[in-house]
Amino acid sequence: MGSEKKRTREAEAEALETPKKKEKKTKKEKTPKKEKDENVSADTGDAAHPETEKLVYLSPISSPMADPKLAKKILKLVTKAAKAKALRRGIKEVAKAVRKQGKGLCVIAGDIFPIDVISGFPVALEEARIPYCYVPQKVDLGAAALTKRPTSIVLVSADKAADFKDELESCAAAVSKLPVLYKLS
């Protein structure tokens, strides 16, 4: 019986000691670490403007870049094409469609890293005479293509574009008028 009392006393003592340890942990407070997003907004100086944050991460070859109004119009077109199953998503599918002389409008994300992934597309698209442009973020392009994942490149196919042919032609005309830093002769 003496040993049982001793065990209960030890258990009670441990129960009383445990909160003291927790109190010591709560007294020590660590200084909060700065997040990466705060550093980026401090570097750019425009934390209130999300448009400029999108443009911070652009690749140097992203030309012609669609202005925000045209980008919104193009992303709506991509959504309609995705619903009508007239959209090629991803690098492999778009490369295959370009090789097979597919026609339409190509939209490339401007924040792709590494650049080598999409660096060959502008030349191939110009040789195939397919209009193309860049939009600021791959996340926006993936959302417009009705996927959960970001998408680096899409091709809106002109073959299956019966419902939105007028919009496709107007977007292609607007994209053709965009200034290009370099042009294949």
TrEMBL record:
Mark out the compositionally biased spans (Basic and acidic residues).
1-20
Q: Give the main location.
A: nucleus
Annotated GO CC locations:
box H/ACA snoRNP complex
Q: What does this chain do? A: Common component of the spliceosome and rRNA processing machinery. Required for ribosome biogenesis. Part of a complex which catalyzes pseudouridylation of rRNA. This involves the isomerization of uridine such that the ribose is subsequently attached to C5, instead of the normal N1. Pseudouridine ('psi') residues may serve to stabilize the conformation of rRNAs.
Q: Where is this region: Disordered?
A: 1-53
Q: Which GO terms describe its molecular function?
A: RNA binding
The name this protein goes by in its record: H/ACA ribonucleoprotein complex subunit 2
| GO BP terms, alphabetized | mRNA splicing, via spliceosome; snRNA pseudouridine synthesis
Tell me which species this is from: Porphyridium purpureum
Q: Where is the composition biased (Basic residues)?
A: 21-31
In the record, the note on similarity to other proteins reads:
Belongs to the eukaryotic ribosomal protein eL8 family.
InterPro entries, sorted:
eL8/uL1-like, H/ACA_rnp_Nhp2-like, Ribosomal_eL30-like_sf, Ribosomal_eL8/eL30/eS12/Gad45, Ribosomal_eL8/Nhp2
PANTHER family listed in its UniProt record? RIBOSOMAL PROTEIN L7AE FAMILY MEMBER (PTHR23105)
Q: Where in the cell is it found?
A: Nucleus, Nucleolus
Domain Ribosomal protein eL8/eL30/eS12/Gadd45: residue ranges: 73-160
UniProt keyword terms in alphabetical order: Nucleus, Ribonucleoprotein, RNA-binding
